[in-house]
Design brief:
The chain has 319 residues and is of the alpha+beta class. The chain folds into 3 domains: 84 residues; 56 residues, Helix Hairpins, CATH 1.10.287; 148 residues, Histidine kinase-like ATPase, C-terminal domain (Heat Shock Protein 90), CATH 3.30.565.10. The protein contains 8 helices and 7 strands. The strands form 2 sheets. Strands 2-4-5-7-6 form a 5-stranded mixed sheet, covered by helices on one side. Strand 6 and strand 7 form a beta hairpin. The longest helix is centred in the N-terminal third of the chain and has 76 residues. The structure holds adenosine-5'-diphosphate.
């Protein structure tokens, strides 16, 4: 199309020039016949010729302007179509990833629970074996429950989430969650530092539990061989600052911009080995926003990732 436009412009330029030459020759013959001019020099200074030349130049600029507008419009059009196409491809990929990951996340606990129940039916087990299997099945139902809750919460967050605020001691909450995770992941080294006394805040306990758990579980999930997770809670400029840092695989700068999108997961679902649905960080960001706070992600020193949350203190309670 660009070639066609260029060709079209060249043709117009040539036609305009030819028309000018024809009019110029006609004018010259007329002026010579009327004995108004005697030389080419006089012709070039003749007012009629100058008018004709001015008109010719004006038309040349007009053609140039039209061609430029066409080309710019064409380039913008191509760019818009390309951008729309890329967006559509990305969202199709995301939908596919979501379907694959959610199906997998639903299927694997169901398969484990089914296996446990079939074992109970087929075999007579010792009490300690029964207890172990029951415990495993309960953990899987917990996983299912967690997934369904995340799906429901993410749908709610987009339309009608209102934080159910109460006075909350974030230091207690985070401390308790870390203790729970220490038991769940004995190989992971957790460190919790509280800088000074942290005032109570008005916040949704369930929401803040979800925020902290998602960040901590991610820090474990995307960790190195010797996971080390450092959590810092402090107060700065009348804001609560919560930092969750890990020494894991890290996140590239390009991906940092996208990880908070709903269903977004780094990499490809066909090759990925970690479990997840891409809902965790979306939920975290929406809950923090609903509390008028902010979350950002940066590289941790040496390796890994650091998530930094800032929460305003509203209606401060006791220390
Ligand atoms: P999920 O963990 O279910 O995939 P999330 O929304 O919690 O979904 O995270 C989105 C993506 O961000 C993850 O797929 C992962 O690639 C990346 N990510 C999140 N937390 C970390 C982390 N601590 N270290 C490295 N990558 C992370």
């Amino acid at each position: 199309m660009l070639l066609a436009f260029t060709w079209w412009s060249v043709l117009l330029f040539t036609k305009n020039r030819d028309a000018f030459y024809a009019k110029r020759d006609l004018l010259k013959i007329g002026l010579i016949a009327e004995r108004l001019i005697e030389s080419d020099h006089e012709f070039e200074h003749n007012i009629n010729y100058q008018e004709l030349h001015k008109e010719y130049k004006r038309q040349e600029w007009m053609i140039f302007g039209e061609a430029a507008v066409f080309v710019v419009t064409l380039i913008i059009g191509i760019w818009l179509i390309n951008r729309g196409y890329n967006r559509e491809m990305l969202s199709a990929q995301q939908r596919r990833n979501f379907l694959l990951s959610t199906t997998h996340e639903l299927k694997s606990p169901l398969a484990s629970i089914k296996l446990v129940l079939e074992t109970f039916i087929k075999r007579k087990l010792k009490p300690e074996q029964t207890e172990k299997l029951t415990h495993a099945a309960l953990q899987e139902t917990e996983r299912l429950n967690h997934l369904v809750n995340d799906l429901l919460l993410s749908a709610k967050l987009e339309v009608s989430y209102q934080p159910n605020v109460e006075e909350l001691n974030l230091a207690h909450l985070v401390g308790e969650l870390i203790e729970r995770l220490k038991t769940k992941y004995p190989v992971v080294e957790f460190q919790f530092h509280q800088n000074g006394s942290i005032p109570n805040i008005q916040a949704d306990k369930m929401g803040m539990t979800s925020v902290s758990l998602n960040l901590l579980e991610n820090a474990v999930k995307y960790s190195s061989d010797q996971p080390k997770i450092e959590v810092n809670l402090g107060l700065k400029n009348n804001k609560i600052i919560l930092n969750v840092a890990d020494n894991g695989i890290g996140i590239s700068d390009k991906e940092k911009k996208r990880i908070f999108e709903k269903f977004y997961r780094v990499g490809n679902e066909d090759t990925r080995t970690t479990k997840g649905t891409g809902l965790g960080l979306f939920i975290v960001q929406q809950i923090i926003k609903a509390h008028e706070g902010t979350i950002l992600v940066e590289d941790n020193e040496v390796t890994g990732t650091r998530f930094k949350i800032e929460l305003p203190i509203k209606g401060v309670g006791k220390k």
